[in-house]
Amino acid sequence: MQLPPKVTDRAFARLAAINAGQAVPRALRVAVEGGGCSGFQYDLKLEETPAADDIVLEGAGQRVFIDPVSLPFLENATIDFTDELIGARFVVQNPNATSSCGCGISFSM
C-alpha cells in the first residue's frame, strides 16, 4: 500500500485563506502528468468536487485531492505553501524525484 503525501499546516492555512468567504469551498488538486522539461510535471489547481476514486486528504477543514494514478509519484512527498520574494505558491517536496527543473513544477524519477 502506498502512503499518500503529507500536507503541511501552512498549505492547509493557505487553502483556508483562499476559501474564506466562499459559498462553496475549493480543494487543492495535486496531479502528476507526463511532460515538462524533466519528464513529469505537477498540475496544481483548485476544484470543488473530488472524483469518485480520488484520495482526499483533510486538515483544518480543508481538502486536497489526489487521483490514484498520481499517488505512486507522490508517495512520501510533502505538499507545502511558500511565500518568498519570487512569489507565493503551493510546492511539492518529492523525495522520489531524482532531478527537478528550476521552476519546481517539472521533475524526473
Low-confidence stretches: none
Total count of strands: 9
How many helices in DSSP terms? 1
CATH superfamily: HesB-like domain
Number of domains: 1
Gyration radius from CA atoms, angstroms: 14 Å
Task: Give the termini distance in whole angstroms.
Answer: 19 Å
Structural class: mainly beta
- Secondary-structure element sequence? EHEEEEEEEE
Q: Class, according to the CATH hierarchy?
A: Mainly Beta
CATH structural architecture = Sandwich
Strand content: 35-45%
* CATH topology (fold) name: Hypothetical Protein Aq_1857, Chain: A
Trace the largest sheet across and list its strands.
Answer: 4-5-2-3-9-8
- What average pLDDT do the residues reach? 86
Percentage of residues assigned to helices: 10-25%
How does this structure look, described?
- This protein is mainly beta and 109 residues long.
- It has one domain: HesB-like domain (Hypothetical Protein Aq_1857, Chain: A), CATH 2.60.300.12.
- The protein has one helix at 9-19, and strands at residues 6-7, 27-34, 40-47, 55-59, 62-66, 78-84, 87-93, 99-100, 106-108.
- The two termini are 19 Å apart.
